Amino acid sequence: MGAAMRDLNREIEKYIGNMPSLPTSVAKVLEVCNNPRTSPADLNHVISLDPVLVGRVLKLINSAYYGLGQQVTNLVRAIIMLGINTVKNLALSTTVMGNLSAGKNSSGLDMEGFWRHSLCVGVASKVLAKRRGVDPKLTEEYFTAGLLHDIGKIPLNAVLSKEYMLTVSVADRERLPLFLAEEKMLGINHCGSGMLIVKAWKLEGPVGATVAYHHNYSGYTDAHQDILFTVVAANRFASLMEIGFSGDRYPEKMGDQIWETLGVDRDVFEEIEKTVNEEIEKAKIFLRL
Predict the structure, then answer these.
(1) How far apart are CA 80 and CA 216, in angstroms?
(2) Is the sign of the CA dihedral 143, 257, 130, 41 positive or negative?
(3) H or E element, residue 40
(4) Distance between CA atoms of 27 and 75, rounded to whole angstroms?
(5) How far apart, in whole angstroms, are the C-alpha atoms of residue 194 and residue 205?
(6) Cα(123)–Cα(120) distance, integer angstroms
(7) Would you kindly state where each structural domain of the chain is located, as residue ranges?
(8) 160 contacts 13 by C-beta, under 8 angstroms
(9) Per-position b or e across 212-237, b if 16+ CB within 10 A of its CB
(10) Which CATH number applies to 105-288?
(11) pLDDT tens per residue, range 134-182
């Protein structure tokens, strides 16, 4: 790696190091939810200490995205109705999006298109999981991992505005997958910068695995493979359907390993398209928090 690329990498690391950390309340939510003996009352106690988080969770719970058909104003009741895992993922996804959206915009990526693409990947991941019979208590894990899979692009876009705009242009002109153009032009791809965010914010689990490995999935065999492979498929779906835009006009082709592991065929994209589009409209609440 040349001196110029090393300088760019240092700028990225400095930017991520200076990003606001996750609120203590959200870190505590993740800690509490990792304990299998946690009760709705335990989670309520932690969330109630953060009025902003309470407002976000209740707003989402009462949105069309969940379609509960009744107004829920009691947090414990909301946790019981949706489940501890779902509420944990609500807290995580809205907080990460809030922290990252607060950064400066730049000309490399249109952030509205970026988040629409991310939302589509999250929704498509959840729809695919449901279609494959994944436990309903776990499907929100798929949504959150899909929603946040590309967060590594945000520091690249924010810090290296001109360089990143050029990188997106090179990917377009040379018909390269964006992550390969990033490596060529910047010496780091968005999975690498995403890994720095994962470490800084301690985003272990399926989100961390997906952020770090969604372009290097073939050798991944750890516990979160099913979620990772589902997000890879959903990412391909979003790109083919041109829902939103994350700078990747020529994404890599998916290996047979994905189809075989997930047990679905290539027609599944056409079969879920209508459902995904309907669910995206409901899920837009995530972009308005």
Answers:
(1) 37
(2) negative
(3) helix 40-47
(4) 18
(5) 14
(6) 5
(7) 21-101, 105-288
(8) no
(9) bbbbebeebeeebbbbbbbbbbbbbb
(10) 1.10.3210.10
(11) 998 899 999 999 999 999 999 999 888 889 999 999 999 999 999 999 9
